[in-house]
Amino acid sequence: MTVKTLDSAPDPTAVGAVPAATPGTAHGAAPEVIPPSGSLQPSPARWRALARRAAAQLGSAILLLWAVATIVFFLQHMVPGDPALAILGGASANPPQETVQAVREQYGFDQPILVQYVAFLGGLLHLDIGESYTMKESVLAVIGEQIVPTLQLTATALLIAWGIALALTLASAGRSGLVGRIGSAIEVVFAALPHFWLGVVLLVVFAVVLQWLPVVDGGPLGLILPSLTLGIPLGGFLAQVTRDEFDAALREPFVLSARSRGATLHDVRWRHVLRHAALPGIALSGWGLGSLISGAVVVEVIFSRQGIGQVLVSAVTAQDLPLVVGVTFVVALVYVVANLLTDLAYVAVDPRLRTSIGRAS
Amino acid sequence: MTLLAPAPDTALAAEAPRPPSRAARRGPLRRPGVLLAGGVVGLVVLAALAPGLLAHQDPLEIDLAASFDAPSLQHPFGTDQSGRDVYSRVVHGAGQSLTIGLGATAIGLLGALALGLTGGLGGRFADVAVTRVIEVLYAFPGILLALILIAVYGNSALTQMVAVGVASMPGYARMVRGQVLSVKGSLYVEAARSLGHSPLRILLRTILPNTFRPLTVLITLGIGQAIVWAAALGFLGMGVQPPTAEWGAMLNAGRNYIQQAWWMDFFPGITIVLFTLSLTVIGRHLQRATDSGAAR
């Protein structure tokens, strides 16, 4: 059992229904050697199998989103106290009874809960997530304004994380002695750095003391420190996963066979081993994006960046539940889409899957 | 990654026991890193149990003349906006931060046990249901679940602890379920069954202990994770409120003065980093030790 830090990451070896490679064809041959050129183009039967797989995944994704919507809806209704009072500024505001009644009717709180639930689900289908209590604006509009900077931040951070993971793995994985140990130590430390601390240190060093970069969000330069803060811990984590796999792949017979065919060690590491080693990391990237969005909440606060993280923090503090629910739902949506994309990337990197999916059905 | 496909049950079981590494055969005392990590954890635990031994100044004593003093001999970690000594606040904060971390881990584990045992032992239908529940929980990444709970139940130290616990539950539940399944299919359970042991006895004497043993490593790491998450929530202004000496609350207070008093955030932060890093080092050491123990 391999144990990594950084949130409760799903077990990288437990990735979905990726069929275990058949012994003999799997590690026995280097990826670019197995498929005789024609077999990479899936036959009609394989296309159908791929399409079925995609449809099944889409179905599960929709089910998952429905479950998320149900949970957040019922959580929202477990709030102690009268939501109408909360909208009007809490019990201490002491609004007149008619106003409270009017708000109840306006938001539909006087309806039975199941009617409200159906209305909520119906609203989701029309992309209507309700209206923010505090901003008196449609939740969708608020999120629409703020999600772009957050996605920019998380995407940049994911690239940085992969850059760090690949650099550390290629430089030090599978090497004995000091280099390997230093690389492995760097990964452990990186993965253990909490965003709130790393962000503050980077901010103080590079923006306050050295003054190389702006303190407050300003243009593309302002993206550097926040995305480093987010990317470095995930990079350390991905590097740990990749290194384990890299070490295992180095012991595979195909390394020896490639070497005996005259490939240089450098060649083997780059072209054969890395491809195997990157797989679990790729599989974890969808989850990684989710953890980056969660981290973005903290990072956006440190660097006073615009984004749904900031929106979420102020919504939680003000107990503005429609906004909290909306942001949560959008994050779950991003997470689900990211995982679907990861799955595609997985098939692209691992040609064994393209054939095995067809064969399995 | 197939989004909703259950994790293959073999994930934990299939990993071949590694050959005992040279590092693992050496005892913990001969590994300087592990020794150092043990020292850090020991100091933090001491600070939590008897803060007076490590810090002599009152963590709440206000001295406005000394506000924002940079680290010096008298105030090794500097002072905050009201002139309180940051070092004694870090020392006195250990107790509350550790309590929140341990409490959250316990809550997460209890929930995970309920889920994981149901999934692992409750038959096919229960297993599918539990797997789905875990997947849905995973769709609330990181501290998001904790934030929702705080939004619903309001901002308090107790909500903070419960919220972190619930947020850590899916990770543990997945491990427990996988572990139960692999133990259930093992030869020694079959042996116990063929010896005629009652199902209850098999559950309590064979399955539970063997499920827990590998989890101890995870729990070591999980406590660190829980403390980091609780501190992140505190940093955002949720949970214990200033001026209480608690690491997350201190981070939150320091946030507004980053530009003039970096030490207010730096020192509580590095304490958390060193503590969680030490737990990681110890956890990895334990893991190597159990792995090589299994191989022997």
Question: What does this entry look like structurally?
Answer:
The complex is a heterodimer of chains A (361) and B (296). Chain A has helices at 44-76, 83-87, 97-107, 113-125, 139-172, 178-192, 195-209, 224-250, 253-260, 265-302, 308-317, 321-349, 351-360. Chain A contains 13 helices and no strands. The radius of gyration of chain A is 25 Å and the shape is flat. The model of chain A is unreliable at 1-8 and 11-39 (pLDDT under 50). Chain A is mainly alpha-helical. In chain B, helix 8 packs antiparallel against helix 10 (199-235), helix 9 (187-194) runs antiparallel to helix 10 and helix 11 (247-255) packs antiparallel against helix 12. Chain B has helices spanning 10-14, 22-25, 32-49, 51-54, 86-121, 123-138, 144-153, 157-184, 187-194, 199-235, 247-255, 263-295. Chain B has 296 residues and is an all-alpha fold. Chain B has a single domain (33-45, 78-293), classed as MetI-like fold (Orthogonal Bundle), CATH 1.10.3720.10. The interface between A and B is large, with 79 and 70 residues.
What's the structural blueprint in terms of helices and strands?
The complex is a heterodimer of chains A (361) and B (296).
Chain A: H1 44-76, H2 83-87, H3 97-107, H4 113-125, H5 139-172, H6 178-192, H7 195-209, H8 224-250, H9 253-260, H10 265-302, H11 308-317, H12 321-349, H13 351-360
Helix pairs in contact in A: 1-12, 1-13, 5-6, 5-8, 5-10, 5-12, 6-8, 7-8, 7-10, 8-10, 9-10, 10-11, 10-12, 11-12, 12-13
Chain B: H1 10-14, H2 22-25, H3 32-49, H4 51-54, H5 86-121, H6 123-138, H7 144-153, H8 157-184, H9 187-194, H10 199-235, H11 247-255, H12 263-295
